[in-house]
């Protein structure tokens, strides 16, 4: 009989992989639409939004589900075949996601270089005329250079890395805060248990004293009982002797 937890985790992992695969298809469509700088600017925003959602939601969920699968496989070797199949499928989908991101990045650079090459050929003549005119007028030639897609992507990557580090730092701070609260709660529990132990210890001491006093009272009672029994025997002996004496006198 299959473990319900294993079945739920497998179904959840399969659903997460299907969701990620749909988003990968959307990234491929964006890559195929890149034909000009205008296309890059338009599709880049879509891809940035999609990858941000994947990196913050889909990938962490899949990694957590893979850890659960690996734990199940170690606990129950009979699930190894199905578990290895699921893990291989997940690794394949994650690798496809990395590949499609690289393809989009490379396609952006390729389209940008091609567009700039065409524009530079058309504008060389006008740049030379402007340079001559500016030199004759005594004005320096202004040099302007728009940032390339590579620089833009590297900047976005740096921003994403820094944002991820800030998020991880905040998570660590929250975890430390939670741990601190747990330790404070444990200290309070230990203090309460210590007070209860002191009360128990006092009760045990009182019980020992009461037991000791009770034993003393029992010994005294036993001593009194023995003395009373001895006195009764002596009294009965005296009565018998008196009866015998009077009986002998009468006779």
Automatic annotation (TrEMBL):
The chain crosses the membrane at residues 233-250. One of its GO terms (molecular function) is SNARE binding. SMART domains: t_SNARE. SUPFAM superfamilies: t-snare proteins. One of its GO terms (biological process) is vesicle fusion. Keywords: Membrane, Transmembrane, Transmembrane helix. Residues 159-221 form the T-SNARE coiled-coil homology domain. One of its GO terms (cellular component) is SNARE complex. Belongs to the syntaxin family. This is Syntaxin 7. It comes from Strigomonas culicis. The lineage of its organism: Eukaryota, Discoba, Euglenozoa, Kinetoplastea, Metakinetoplastina.
